[in-house]
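Deliverable D4.2, example record:
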Amino acid sequence: MALLFAAVAMAGQWGAGWTIPQGAEARQNPKPVTPAMLKQGRSIFERSCQKCHGPQGKGDGPDSDPRSPAADLTDAFRAELNPEGVMFYRVMNGKPPAMPSFKSQLSADEVWAVVAYARSLRKAP
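Output generated by the structure prediction step:
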């Protein structure tokens, strides 16, 4: 019963349908964020994420479903809800069919780069 309660609590914390391992919120990018990493992250974002999240990351890309739009990555409120470790797992594993998994297309370093770039889009609180 306690395990079921924990699973329900985590689903509520990270959003229904997301598979986020326990402790993911504490995981951090193993490399320092540099201008080169942000440039790489932007390139990956433009190629793989922009079609749903939009060019500025506002969730308004042409493939975003208006009934259930892609996340607005510029929203500072999301920083608390989506620490970088959670973002890493979201990008790696996705939530089909709305968000694809990128683990077969991107290396871990590339995912960390796109996470760093996406976090750079957030407005200051």
